[in-house]
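Handover notes (outgoing to incoming on-call)

Open items:
1. Tetratricopeptide repeat protein: sequence verified, structure written out, both below. Nothing else pending on this one.
2. Nothing else urgent.
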Amino acid sequence: MKRLLLPLGTLLLAGFTLTASAQQTAVDFFENGIGKSKSGDFTGALQAFSMAITMNPENAPSYYNRGLAKANLKDHRGAILDYDRAIELNGKDAMAYLSRGVSKSKQEDHRAALLDFSRAIELNPDDPQAYYNRGVSRSRIDQYRGALADFTKTLELDPANVQVYYARGITKQKLNDFSSSLADFTKVIDMTPKRSQAYAGRGVSKVELNDFTGAIADLNKAIELSPEDAESFFYRGFAKGKLEEYKGALADYDRSIALKKDNYKAYYGRGFCRSKLGDQKGALLDFTQSIDMNNTNSDTKVVYNTRVTRPILDNLRNRVQDRDRINELSPERSEAYFSRGVSKNKQGDQKGAIADLSKSIELNPTYAEAYFSRGLIKSAQGDQRGAITDCNDAIKLNPRYGEAFYVRGLIKYSLGDENSGCLDLSKAGEMGYSPAYKVISDICN
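Tetratricopeptide repeat protein structure tokens:
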């Protein structure tokens, strides 16, 4: 079995097992995919693994490795579908469960990810990465004690993993075990002295333990290493306030607010310092801001607003090129109507363009390009449902029509159907329409 380390966490490329029925070309495509993955050409790797799957659709490693390629392109929905198939074909592959769990966690589906990580641990109980990933998922759904146990197990298996010491320290803070967290943050600092988050974490724990002088020393270092960290300024201001250094605290609260304007606690702290320094008018303004901002943060309902608004949809859709290629003219001349419709659209005559494209479809109901081009125009006119219908027909006629999957995905996403839209974009990329991966990276993660 051939294994290869990829940039995506610690996931490995699985080896290709040649079955008796597999053709040599399937092996060639698979090996080509391995090579492209090694060089970071994940789009090329995806296409190679797709060809291997076409030649031998029952080989689990092909699906697994294509899933890894998609995951590296941030297409986690598409990756999950490939991992599903890999697991159907080989339910004992711990790496497939681990990889699927990673992609599920990237989609914020932490409970489902937790189940995959648990299955990976059952199959390979000595893999520290699976315990670490499960600990992260548990912490995301507030299962802090379970997360703590997982992080501790990870360190038993991999005691040099600095990232896990930091995660365990944060988890101990969540459990109010500030005293014990100090050792974990100190370990991180010893191993990586330039890591600002470790100083900040230790400083926060010292604040909670009332060691304000020690906290200030740690937070000074955190700010030196990361001067844009609003939280470090906030906690340093709090510690200075506790030591009655109100002028210094005021300056820290000013900086914290400048970096993070929605921290109502910082307004409260600054108001307190202003009051102590005799600026009652300023203190009242800050206290009022703290009260109003807190109410806004806790009571205002979040209204969904898709990231693909109508102007963005128009911009992304309009980048798709018409498939207006010279074809042999059939007796019914549907190709001529099609080309004339495309030309009319380019001249701004959308009504005339749709009439010609509809006539082209009437004369040749299997003309996938005509459906797709008409769908583009309908979308530009705001008829998104009609555009989806035309894309559906184009895809039925040509199941490998990457541009049609792409446009349909954009429209579905813009109408609020994010999951289905992103799956269509994934399919577009799988069919070779590579611009889909830029959109997936921007909106599907």
